[in-house]
Design a protein that fits this description.
Residues 2-67 form the Aspartate/homoserine dehydrogenase NAD-binding domain. The structure is a single chain. The chain is α/β, with parallel strands linked by helices. Helices cover 35% and strands 27% of the residues. The strands form three sheets. A five-stranded mixed β-sheet has the order 5-6-4-7-8. It has a three-stranded parallel β-sheet with strand order 1-2-3, with helices on one face. Helix 2 (19-31) packs parallel to helix 3 and helix 6 (126-132) packs antiparallel against helix 7 (138-146). It starts with a helix and ends in a 7-residue tail after the last helix. The chain binds NADPH dihydro-nicotinamide-adenine-dinucleotide phosphate and oxaloacetate ion.
């Protein structure tokens, strides 16, 4: 069955494919009246696409869901953003093999397999991080959407050969005070590229959509 036919017969589309899939499928799905859950959140760093999607969702009275993905702390960030937030930082540490193929790594000729100790590969705003590492720091996009946007959210990407887990640390400061979170993610049993928690967050978001009881922000 073609995508165009499929979206006419469903209530909710779950995108878990790629940033290109977000560009291609999500506008069509929203126009067809579907709610949409997006995992390739990095696509939303493109301001034009972001405003288009938010606009179509509003016009068609559809919901766009962005699960917490591979990070913890989006609940606190959501609460904190009801008042002023002064800074949000994300530090992502991955085994070098988890960063292979990233455009930033290719463009800079970084020889990941030769790294012997932890190495900071990138430091900059989330707007650049998600383009440099589209399959690795979608979490930076989710944090940007929940908090202070893609330009003000600061991201560090570190390759660490001593790691077997994907480690994401978030620090947020604002009128509420300050919090820090750290998660050490095991890979998904069926897909070593992606943290298991990201898949679980999609399952949890589905349950939240269907449940009459909502817990947490
Ligand atoms: N929000 C978060 O915290 C996280 C988000 N992600 C993101 O979620 C997405 C899925 O992750 P993951 O499962 O690890 O990715 P994979 O690359 O392992 O799998 C993606 C699958 O989607 C297919 N696909 C990609 N683009 C299209 C398209 N345009 N139309 C149809 N099928 C398509 C691919 O097919 P083929 O191989 O044939 O191209 C592949 O089977 C990725 O964008 C990833 O970056 C991942 C982890 C955490
Ligand atoms: O799975 C992870 O740890 C995070 C990830 O790839 C992403 O955010 O794109």
């Amino acid at each position: 069955m073609k995508i165009e036919e499929l979206i006419r017969s469903v209530d909710l589309v779950v995108e878990s494919a790629s940033q290109n899939a977000v560009r291609f499928i999500v506008p069509q799905a929203l126009k067809a009246g579907c709610d949409v859950m997006i995992l390739s959140v990095g696509a939303l760093a493109d301001e034009e696409l972001r405003e288009t999607l938010f606009g179509i969702a509003k016009e068609n009275n559809c919901k766009l869901y962005f699960p917490s993905g591979a990070v913890v702390g989006i609940d606190g960030l959501n609460s904190a953003s009801a008042a002023g937030i002064s800074s949000v930082t994300l530090s992502t540490r991955k085994p070098p093999s988890g960063l292979m193929g990233a455009p930033y790594v290719e463009e800079h000729g970084i020889e990941l397999e030769k790294l012997e100790k932890e190495t900071v590969l990138f430091e900059g705003p989330a707007s650049e991080a998600v383009k440099a590492f589209p399959a690795n720091v979608n979490v930076a996009a989710t944090i940007s959407l929940a908090g202070i946007g893609f330009r003000r959210t600061r991201v560090k990407v570190i390759a660490d050969p001593s790691l077997s887990r994907n480690v994401h640390e978030i620090t947020v400061e604002g009128e509420f005070g300050k919090f820090s979170t750290r998660v050490e993610n095991l890979p998904s049993p069926e897909n070593p590229k992606t943290s298991y928690l990201a898949a679980l967050s999609a399952v949890s978001t589905l349950k939240k959509i269907l449940s009459p009881v909502q817990i947490g922000t």
